[in-house]
Design a protein that fits this description.
The chain is an alpha/beta fold. The chain has six helices and seven strands, in the order E-H-E-H-E-H-E-H-E-H-E-E-H. Helices cover 40% and strands 22% of the residues. Bound molecules: glycinamide ribonucleotide.
Length: 199
């Protein structure tokens, strides 16, 4: 049985699209499928992408103690939660229940250029302002601290002297689209092996 993925997204949803396309392309051999896309923002373009792909969508309150999100994940029998441009902290109640089963992507080489308030263009602006010669992509498991959970995969992207935040962001997001679906797949496979072992 494929792992049941929930993707949480509040932005344009290009990583969500890459994940949907990746698992669609695997067809019968796929180890996971997106069964829910949820957002704290009703106007997130990611929800439109999900609806177009006939995936269930939901809105939840990100300002509560996590009860609403947790009950949504349980209702949809979610195995793995994938954050794709979701910018709020995941409440402890959800992290406790889904320990090791929440995965995030960050557009830089963590632990550098991460932490509260570091997302989207701000990350690339900070990288360029620092004079760093390389940036990249980090996929990591989510724990109670922003951008600090165990790293699953990293990929480097060179910073050019002429880069603006926009040009760097464009190269980084292309790498995200290649790396994230495969990292999600790997975590899903490991999770399935682990649950067979403990059955
Ligand atoms: C991605 O670049 C992702 O790494 C970043 O938001 C963008 C979402 O784009 N996430 C963070 O900065 C989290 N700290 P998308 O909505 O097109 O997938």
């Amino acid at each position: 049985m494929p792992s049941r993925l929930a993707v949480l997204a509040s932005g344009r949803g290009s990583n969500l699209q890459a994940i949907i396309d990746h698992f669609d392309s695997l067809a019968r051999e796929r180890v996971a499928k997106v069964v829910l896309v949820a957002s704290n923002r009703a106007d997130s373009p990611a929800l439109i992408r999900a609806a177009t792909a006939s995936i269930d969508i939901a809105n939840f309150n990100a300002a509560d103690d996590g009860s609403e999100l947790l009950s949504l994940l349980q209702t949809f029998r979610i195995d793995l939660v994938v954050l794709a441009g979701y910018l709020k902290r995941i409440q402890h109640k959800v992290i406790r229940e889904y320990a090791g089963r929440i995965i995030n992507i960050h557009p830089a080489l963590l632990p550098a250029f991460g932490g509260e308030g570091m997302y989207g263009a701000r990350v690339h602006e900070a990288v360029i302002a620092s004079g760093a010669e390389e940036s990249g992509v980090t996929v990591h498991l989510v724990d109670d601290e922003y951008d600090r959970g165990p790293i699953v995969a990293q990929w480097r992207v060179a910073v050019d002297r002429a880069d603006t935040a926009e040009s760097l962001a464009a190269r980084v997001v292309n790498v995200e689209h290649a790396v994230y679906p495969r990292a999600v797949e790997m975590v899903a496979v490991l999770q399935q092996l682990e649950s067979k072992r403990t059955d």
